[in-house]
Amino acid sequence: MSLARLDLLQRLCFPKIWQEKGLYPDDLYQVQLEAFRAEARVRGIPPDDYHPAGGTEHYRYGAFRFWLYRKPAREVYEALMEAAAADPDPPMAGAAIKDLISSYSPSRAIVELVIQAVSRSKAYYLSEKELRAFLRQTAG
User: Fold this and answer.
1) pTM for the model
2) What is the residue range of 89's domain?
C-alpha cells in the first residue's frame, strides 16, 4: 500500500500551504515517500503504520532545497516564504528563510509576513532587525 500525498504531508508536519499552493509536486512526493518508507523500515514499522514522533523538519527543509535547486518563478519563492513563516519548527524555518532571501528579493509584503513570524520567537535565529536591514538594502 502507498501513502497518499496528503497523508504523507500530514505525517511530516507540512503546513497546509504546501498543498494549497501546489508546492508539493509529484517528483518531490515520490522522493520523500521513498525516504519515509526507508525510515519506517529502519525502525521496523510498516510505512502505513509509521507516524514519526519528531524529527520531520529534515523532510520539510529538503522540500525547500528541492525548490531552490530548480530556481522557480517569483510566485513560488513568495509561496515558499509563506510556507517557511508557517512552519512548526522555527530553527529550520529560519534557515529556510535565509536560504530563500539569498536566492531572490522578496516583496515587502512577504518580508513583513516573515517579520511577524520571527518576532514571535527567538528560535528562528533571525531577527526583525536583520529582515528590516534586508528590506532597506533591496528598496534602493
Assistant:
1) 0.90
2) 5-139
